[in-house]
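Quarterly update, task 2.4: MTE-bound model.
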Amino acid sequence: MELWGKRDDMVVHEREPFNAEPPRVALARERQTPVGVFYSRNHGPIPDIDPRAWRLRVDGLVGHRLELSLRELRERFEEVEIKATLQCAGNRRAGLAAVRDIPGEASWGPGATATARWSGVRLRDVLAEAGLESQAAHIAFSAPDVSRKADPPQPYGGSIPATKARSPEVLLAWAMNGEPLPRVHGGPLRAVVPGWIGARSVKWLTRITARSQPSTSYFQTTAYRILPAGADPARAEPGTGISLGPLPVNCDILTPDNGAQLPPGPTEIMGYALAGDGRIVARVDVSPDAGGDWRQAELDPADSPWVWQHWRTTLDLPAGERHVTARAWDSTGALMPESPRSLWNPRGYGNNSWARVHVTCR
Ligand code: MTE
């Protein structure tokens, strides 16, 4: 269980709790990420749940509480499948840490993002069965994994607004890429909240609570917030800063690798772009010289707003040190910001600055 079925070359940030991402180039191969390549982000020990004994409780501001076994979920609701990209709010934190130190947080590179085919039932169907009351403005998720990093230590949780919970893309998933959901990814059941930070896709889901206010979990009130630049995260009061939800437009270069040595001449540059909540990527520009000249990349069609789009272009790279740079625009005209300096925040979330790899051509 040392690597939880992941590739041997995963970049392991922590073994306990297990936190690991694939090397950049491993994400380039497939549009659907194999489970062995999919990043793993955990705040506590990975629970071992007997699927037969497991139950999902639905309570709070509902007309009637539910308690459902996996079999009841499968039998009582329509099974749906959706492709969706997950992206951790800490993805590309290393780029922010290079601006200014971010103590106590792992320096995630480009790999805390990946795409899978998820199967399960729509959250909205389960909420409808429970009879969601009109005052229910937030849907909270609870899980049994206890994080000692939370203050005070507590089980993982979080919430999404009821408007998002009622959107058809939000799933309670029991399968990933056609196989039963692996334990490390939240088996037997997890939430999948496409277009939102990965933190809201709660794994090992045991309880769904309809509330008038957001979840009181540490992971909603204190973590996953953009604190003001001068704030001390260890002293920030719950509720300080901006709570993260919908993802901003982002992209990265997946090949060539950062630090690669290449022959000069025509070089294929390839990457992904993801627009975030309900939007699609409209354009990706790639530059051979850190943003002096730009060339428009060929962009895969958007299958759905919930899935990353791969892109590619060929640049003629002269001999020497090159800073290949990419930036994406979304369908609302929003562009990734140029500099990680402008985005720096004490917990290091939401780095969607221009993607850069440094290569040497000789
Ligand atoms: N759910 C639980 N119960 N515990 C966790 O630590 N981590 C969250 C989310 N759901 C987490 C969780 C975060 S921050 C992310 S980015 C995604 O799960 C990662 O999902 P993955 O490990 O399947 O890639």
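Highlight for this quarter: The radius of gyration is 20 Å.
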